[in-house]
Amino acid sequence: MVDVSFELRKFVSPEFIIGVDARKLAGRYAKNLGASHVFLVTGNNLIRAGWVRDVIESLDSEGIRHTLFADITPNPRDFEVMNGAKLYKEAGCDAVVALGGGSPLDCAKGIGIVASNDQHILEFEGVDNVIIPAPPLICIPTTAGSAADVSQFAIITDTARKVKIAIISKKIVPDISLIDPVPLTSLTAELTAHTGMDALVHSIEAYVSNASSPVTDIQALESIRLISAYLPLAYHNPDNIGYRYKTMLGSLLAGLAFSNASLGAVHAMAHSLGGLSDLPHGECNALLLESVIDFNFEVCPQRYETIAGAMNIDCQSHQESQIKQMLLHALQKLRVELGITERLGDLGVTRENLSDLAKSAMKDPCLATNPRKPTLSDLEKIYEKAL
Ligand SMILES: NC(=O)c1ccc[n+]([C@@H]2O[C@H](COP(=O)([O-])OP(=O)(O)OC[C@H]3O[C@@H](n4cnc5c(N)ncnc54)[C@H](O)[C@@H]3O)[C@@H](O)[C@H]2O)c1
Ligand SMILES: [Fe+2]
């Protein structure tokens, strides 16, 4: 039998440029992609912080027109994508540039596929349901979190069903990602914490995923090392570009890992929570992570021990049960240091919500790669532990 590590595997990633001021290359890369009129998808905080102005100046300097679209909320909604696609067509755009956290980036991915396929965004739910490629897409992430700029995922809220759907397709991998640590300096401490924990959960879930591979393992472990060491430093020193760069690098590596190894129960359950109660995605992940590890640990203790090692926890000569407690304790300490101390109950989730939350998490495609297969009642219990 062939060792599972030698099996043929395929990986997708966009072309990416990483470094200080990468955002200012938007015009040059849009020109390389043949753009003449860019649809610029972003959010109001990014306009206020001045990052959008930098991108517009860069487009102007190459003689590229733009139409601005910033009518987007966190946990982007289906109708926001549809409105954007309508405006894209009416304005006669031929490329998309997205600047923001995961929400504008995912919305931009959605706008692209709706515009090229003339379908409703919710029809693309699931794996490989995009037929016609989207127009050229350049992404500029402003959080060290979602890594939507390198992933083959887009997460959109189905407002009728109150769930977040996952669209997973090679056709929504951006063409270019311009990864710049500078925009991270306008993140509040709370956003730094939430988005950074999202990135850490990406790498942990990719590493224990049952679709992990030697390539994604290297990316995930280095990402865990970088984020656990530098996220607290960036949180306490928000203007330090060096620390911001390390968290951005950690987020990029996590993105490459999870885009190709997929995620797990934390994300399935966080999508369900975000759809029902519109809570910040990273915060949902942070509040569920320890309970999910408590559930998963027994099926892959070695993997979790390696994660603990990457977090600089000295596990040598400890038994499995002790290692589990040491890892959970270190994650709790990190979460508290980052000011994430509330519980799901404090955020308005009630016992009556648990059954619906568990039902919709059961249907999320991220659950398929969780190392331990949960039942509906397992998921309810995990939510309950975090309540
Ligand atoms: N596509 C994927 O692969 C993927 C992966 C993980 C999460 N997601 C999705 O991404 C979304 C979360 O994205 P996110 O956590 O990056 O945040 P976000 O885009 O939802 O933004 C959250 C808040 O941060 C603000 N913000 C973002 N960058 C800022 C900056 N540099 N300065 C000041 N304010 C800033 C935004 O204006 C917003 O108010 C969720 O919908 C989640 O489901 C997608
Ligand atoms: Fe995420």
Automatic annotation (TrEMBL):
Coiled coil location: none
Domain of life where this protein originates: Archaea
Domain Alcohol dehydrogenase iron-type/glycerol dehydrogenase GldA intervals: 15-181
Keywords for the protein's UniProt record, in alphabetical order: NAD, Oxidoreductase
Gene Ontology molecular function terms on file: alcohol dehydrogenase (NAD+) activity; metal ion binding
Residue ranges annotated for the Fe-containing alcohol dehydrogenase-like C-terminal domain, each copy included: 192-387
Name this polypeptide is given: Alcohol dehydrogenase
